[in-house]
């Protein structure tokens, strides 16, 4: 399975069950859980191959080799040519001041992130508060089961994501920022930054242009219905399934297969799909989520999520990241809607490149 970046090359630092070191890359394969069908042995390849991990995981990843050309209806993205790397530090670090009595201005998609811990803490505090209000409004007045999210949700979620990515790469600044945050937000920030840092540790930057297939995800509440259906059928928490899909393909945005052949919104290896796909379509979101729940259940969930997730992807960093994101979704469902609006980034030798979003 993949961590969040389609077709990305990363470096996993875990080991396969047999003790052999596994090269760190998003689409590594390894042993899986015991197969429940007679005649199959233990040690099947893990369900997926971290394609999105490099692309989608907290939105940070790179890819190795050229990905397949875009399929009809999908967007071929050349990150090196079409998206400039994140600008260094010349852009403004904050939005213009807002007149009293008016709603805060929305952050521009690529506005520079403050580097001073105090300003960063204020920016994150304000962003999260406004994002929660925007999500509440979306749920109350909009329809998350249809159409696109409103602009405030999209822009605020992207800004939140970019702050956490910055903190993940700057541990000292992160520590000083946590100390300036309200207690509840500090805990949330630590979970998100730790998860992002774990996923970033699994990939290495790419240097050559590559194509990644991306597309809009299914509506947030349609996905929520799929998660809950799969959870009821196999007894796996829907928040864990959501966190896996978030890390693997950013809720289906990433559609490139890995260079080892992992496919679909949950990044299954074909052999694992044959065993757990129950005759479904590997590219279909509902079928893929049922298969993932089936696989995790066969691997030990809900009794032992760590064991089950490690079977899905042989990396403790991956396991920790998924569980941290799942914990945040359990604490406040608005975090699910925020994650739904996090975008796909690719890590290159020239900086991060965003492949989706505004």
From TrEMBL:
Question: For the region Disordered, what residue ranges are annotated?
Answer: 1-44, 61-117
Which one Pfam family would you cite for this protein? SLT
Compositional bias of kind Low complexity? 19-28, 61-84
Residues in Transglycosylase SLT domain copies: 227-319
Q: Which SUPFAM superfamilies does the entry link to?
A: Lysozyme-like
InterPro entries according to UniProt: Lysozyme-like_dom_sf, MltB-like, Transglycosylase_SLT_dom_1
Q: What is this protein called?
A: Transglycosylase SLT domain-containing protein
Source organism:
Streptosporangium brasiliense
């Amino acid at each position: 399975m993949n961590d969040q970046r389609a077709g990305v090359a990363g470096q996993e630092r875990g080991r396969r069950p047999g003790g052999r070191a596994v090269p760190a890359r998003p689409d590594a394969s390894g042993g899986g859980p015991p197969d429940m069908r007679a005649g199959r042995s233990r040690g099947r390849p893990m369900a997926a191959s971290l394609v999105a991990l490099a692309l989608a995981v907290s939105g940070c990843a790179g890819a190795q080799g050229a990905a397949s050309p875009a399929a009809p209806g999908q967007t071929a993205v050349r990150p090196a040519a079409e998206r400039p790397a994140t600008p260094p530090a010349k852009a403004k670090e904050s939005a213009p001041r807002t007149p009293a009595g008016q709603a805060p201005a929305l952050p521009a998609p690529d506005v520079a992130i403050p580097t001073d811990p105090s300003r960063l803490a204020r920016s994150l505090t304000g962003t999260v508060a406004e994002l929660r209000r925007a999500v509440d409004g979306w749920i109350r007045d909009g329809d998350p089961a249809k159409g696109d999210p409103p602009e405030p949700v999209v822009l605020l979620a992207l800004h939140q994501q970019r702050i956490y990515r910055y903190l993940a790469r700057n541990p000292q600044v992160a520590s000083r920022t946590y100390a300036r945050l309200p207690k509840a937000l500090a805990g949330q920030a630590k979970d998100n930054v730790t998860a992002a840092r774990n996923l970033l540790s699994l990939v290495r930057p790419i240097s050559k242009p590559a194509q990644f297939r991306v597309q809009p995800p299914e509506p947030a509440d349609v996905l929520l219905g799929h998660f809950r259906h799969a959870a009821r059928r196999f007894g796996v928490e829907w928040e864990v399934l959501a966190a896996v899909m978030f890390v693997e393909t950013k809720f289906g945005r990433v559609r490139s297969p890995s260079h080892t052949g992992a496919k679909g919104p949950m990044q299954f290896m074909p052999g694992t799909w044959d065993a757990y796909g129950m005759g479904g379509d590997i590219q279909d979101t509902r079928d893929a989520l049922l298969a993932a729940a089936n696989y995790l259940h066969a691997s030990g969930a809900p009794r032992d999520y760590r064991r089950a997730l490690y079977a899905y992807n042989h990396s403790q960093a991956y396991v920790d990241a998924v569980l941290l994101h799942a914990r945040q979704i359990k604490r406040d469902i608005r975090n699910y809607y925020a994650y739904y609006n996090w975008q796909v980034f690719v890590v290159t030798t020239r900086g991060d490149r965003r492949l989706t979003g505004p």
